[in-house]
TrEMBL record:
It comes from the Eukaryota. Pathway: Pigment biosynthesis; anthocyanin biosynthesis. Keywords: Glycosyltransferase, Transferase. It is an enzyme of class 2 (transferase). Belongs to the UDP-glycosyltransferase family. It catalyses: an anthocyanidin + UDP-alpha-D-glucose + H(+) = an anthocyanidin 3-O-beta-D-glucoside + UDP. This is Glycosyltransferase. Its EC number is 2.4.1.-.
Length: 483
């Protein structure tokens, strides 16, 4: 009965663990710290992910969060098998929201606010129709948000392809953006992918406010820029609320694999293990995985390696199918004899590891990461420095920022002259040693530890991120109909 009188907020995530994880975490904070009742809306896809199912199981969630699954949509007539993952995702989101969101929000009794991610902008129209103020949650860095906010202006002012621009892209008030770090979608302005990104970006000002999954100490310059700068000429940027890091809390794995990872870590010396994992969708080619395995072996460092079926196609091939790999397949993906030769020093796991628990473990001393924003925040919050191995989306931007501005990552040197962009085993061996035993690694580890403390401060009661969210919660509570 007490539940019913709590103010009710809806949080809507597009598919993919990189979005569901932080939005669910925001939902938890709204329930636990600010006493809301939250409906967590999930867009259903046909693909099954064991990890996602586990995450959304009601018995693992605090009382006060209801997971509401939108009915599945049949997109077979409007998608093709060779469609890029991102495009397919957008089609599913668009269809689901057009068909079901309005009805669901009405059935839920019209929540006082709706929080969505970048891909759910269809919800702005429905929110307006139902008079529900709709907020965006930025699952990426503030730097990528600034780029998105500026993109419509850039689109109007630049005639050529962005990749043909000399030098860098200079977003007002922000650090220059390297052309080679641009997201793939903007490399061809005639492509549908570009048009879609531009559309999503141009809808951002419709947000009643934008939650940032970051805090001042990580991105001071860019935060100042988004607070002060109207990126759209004549259209002000909505109020921004830095509430990060919004990342998974402690997770105690209950599955055999997770338990095995932690038990293995318990037996290793402090800060001696490199954790190698490429997010929820990252995959490597056979050739790259072979080089990576050899690099790890040559470095003679301890490691946990999360392995997925290699693919020579998309480097985000596992996005929808993660968790379906079988531990028996691993041997076939890795160099012959690798598992035996490294048995003393390494642990290889299939598909998915309890990342947050691994990063938090005192034996973990480094993280070879694809630099998805959640992974980057998790690593920093655990005081663990990184080897930046960007694969897709805005990860190249993140990698450069983490290495050059934040100072918590090192990047392998890629021979751009070479025919393929494969990073060879010697280079991998080198960066692993730099991070795990070099002076540079020590400096990065110290910086990561400082930021770990800064994150804890920001999140504690009275800290900047805690207060930022509390402020919005207060507004919602004070006068919901006037927001
Ligand atoms: N993750 C995990 N175990 C894995 C791989 C990923 O728990 O083996 C989690 C990770 O902790 C993070 C999320 O999945 O919270 C991945 O999000 P990120 O933004 O780093 O990358 P994306 O998957 O969106 O590319």
């Amino acid at each position: 009965v007490a539940q019913a009188i709590k103010p009710h907020v809806a949080v809507l995530s597009s598919p993919g663990m990189g979005h569901i994880i932080p939005l669910l975490e925001l939902a938890k904070r709204l329930v636990i710290h600010h006493h809301f009742h939250v409906s967590f809306l999930v867009i259903t896809t046909n693909e099954v992910s064991a990890a996602q199912d586990q995450l959304l199981r009601s018995e693992t969630l605090p009382l006060g969060i209801d997971v509401v699954r939108l009915s599945p949509v049949d997109v077979s007539a409007i998608t093709t098998d060779d469609m890029p993952v991102g495009t397919r995702l957008c089609v599913i989101v668009e269809e689901s929201l057009s068909k079901f969101l309005k009805t669901v929000l009405i059935e839920l009794g019209k929540p006082i606010a709706l929080v969505i991610d970048f891909f759910c902008t269809k919800a702005f129209d429905i929110g307006r129709e139902l008079s529900i103020p709709t907020y965006s949650f930025c699952t990426t860095s503030i730097a990528f948000l600034a780029f998105s906010l500026y993109l419509p202006t850039l689109d109007r002012e630049v005639d050529c392809e962005f990749v043909d621009l000399p030098g860098t892209i200079n977003i007002p008030g922000c650090s220059p953006l390297q052309i080679q770090d641009l997201v793939d979608q903007v490399k061809n302005r005639k492509s549908d992918a570009y048009k879609r990104l531009l559309f999503f970006a141009s809808r951002l000002p419709l947000s009643a406010g934008i939650f940032l999954n970051s805090w001042e100490d990580i991105e001071p310059i860019t935060l100042k820029a988004v607070i002060e700068n109207p990126f759209f000429k004549g259209i002000p940027t909505p109020p921004v609320h830095p509430i990060g890091p919004v990342i998974k809390e402690e997770e105690q794995p209950t599955d055999d694999l997770g338990i095995e990872c932690l038990a293995w870590l318990d037996k290793q010396p402090p800060e001696s293990v490199l954790f190698v994992a490429l997010g929820s969708g990252g995959t490597l080619s056979y050739e790259q995985l072979t080089e990576l395995a050899w690099g790890l072996e040559l470095s003679q460092q301890r490691f946990i390696l999360v392995v997925r079926k290699p693919t020579n196609g998309s480097n985000s091939a596992a996005f929808f199918t993660v968790g379906s790999d079988n531990v028996n397949h691993l041997k076939a993906y890795l160099p012959e004899g690798f598992l035996d030769r490294t048995a003393e020093r390494g642990l290889v796991v299939a598909s998915w590891a309890p990342q947050m628990a691994v990063l938090k473990h005192p034996s973990t001393g480094g993280f070879l990461s694809h630099c998805g924003w959640n992974s980057a925040l998790e690593s920093i919050t655990c005081g663990v420095p990184m080897i930046a191995w960007p694969l897709y989306a805005e990860q190249k931007m993140n990698a450069t920022m983490l290495a050059e501005e934040v100072g918590v990552a090192t990047k392998p040197i890629i021979n751009v002259e070479a025919e393929t962009c494969i990073v060879g085993r010697e280079e991998i061996e080198r960066v692993v040693r730099v991070l795990m035993e070099g002076e540079e690694g020590k400096v990065m580890r110290r910086r990561a530890k400082d930021l770990k403390e800064s994150a804890a401060k920001a999140l504690a009661i009275g800290g900047s991120s805690y207060d930022s969210l509390a402020c919005v919660a207060k507004e919602w509570n004070a006068n919901p109909s006037m927001i």
